C-alpha cells in the first residue's frame, strides 16, 4: 500500500520489525547498446565521521519514525537536490548477521529539481 507521498510501507524489510539505521539509494544510468552502465557514488570527505575518504552510495541515517524509503527520498533531496518519484527495495546489507542498511533504486533516473 502506498501513502500520500507514493511511498510503500516497508514493514516487510529485514528479519525483524526494526528498520536498519541507514538507508541509501543505488543510482545507475541505464546503458544503451553502445554505452556501459554508470554507477553514481559520492567520495566522502576525509573528515567525515562515517566512511571517511571512501566511495559510498547516497543516503544516510533514518530520522525517528521514518521508514527506509522515506529516509532515502529525504536524503536524495538533501544530498542531490532531487527527489525520485518512486523507489523500490533493491538489497539489504548485513554485517555479522545484523541488518545495517536498506538500499533502494529509483524506477527511473530522470533528474528534476526538488
In short:
The chain has 114 residues and is mostly beta strands. The chain has one helix spanning 68-80; strands spanning 22-25, 27-29, 38-40, 42-43, 55-56, 58-61, 87-95, 98-106.
Blueprint (SSEs and pairs):
Elements: E1 22-25, E2 27-29, E3 38-40, E4 42-43, E5 55-56, E6 58-61, H1 68-80, E7 87-95, E8 98-106
Parallel strand pairs: 1-8
Antiparallel strand pairs: 1-6, 2-3, 4-5, 7-8
Describe the structure.
This protein is mainly β. It is built from one helix and eight strands. The strands form three sheets. It has a four-stranded mixed sheet, with helices on one face. The chain has a two-stranded antiparallel sheet with strand order 2-3. The two termini are 24 Å apart. Residues 1-10 have low confidence and may be disordered.
Question: What is the count of β-strands?
Answer: 8
Low-confidence stretches: 1-10
- Identify the quaternary structure here: single chain
Q: Could you give the order of the helices and strands?
A: EEEEEEHEE
Largest pleated sheet? 4 strands, mixed
* Percent range of helical residues: 10-25%
**Shape by Cα distribution:** globular
Spatial sequence of strands, sheet with the most strands: 6-1-8-7
SS content category: mainly beta
- Summed up, the helix count is 1
What share of the residues does DSSP label as strand, in percent? 25-35%
Distance between the termini: 24 Å
What's the pLDDT, averaged over the residues? 79
What Rg, in angstroms, do the CA atoms define? Answer: 14 Å
Amino acid at each position: 500500500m502506498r501513502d500520500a507521498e507514493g511511498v510503500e510501507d516497508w514493514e516487510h524489510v529485514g528479519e525483524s520489525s526494526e528498520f536498519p539505521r541507514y538507508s541509501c539509494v543505488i543510482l545507475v544510468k541505464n546503458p544503451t547498446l553502445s554505452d556501459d552502465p554508470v554507477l553514481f557514488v559520492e567520495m566522502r570527505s576525509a573528515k567525515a565521521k562515517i566512511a571517511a575518504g571512501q566511495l559510498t552510495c547516497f543516503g544516510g541515517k533514518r530520522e525517528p519514525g521514518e521508514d527506509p524509503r522515506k529516509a532515502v527520498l529525504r536524503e536524495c533531496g538533501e544530498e542531490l537536490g532531487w527527489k525520485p518519484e518512486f523507489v523500490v527495495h533493491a538489497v539489504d546489507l548485513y554485517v555479522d548477521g545484523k541488518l545495517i542498511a536498506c538500499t533502494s533504486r529509483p524506477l527511473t533516473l530522470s533528474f528534476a529539481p526538488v
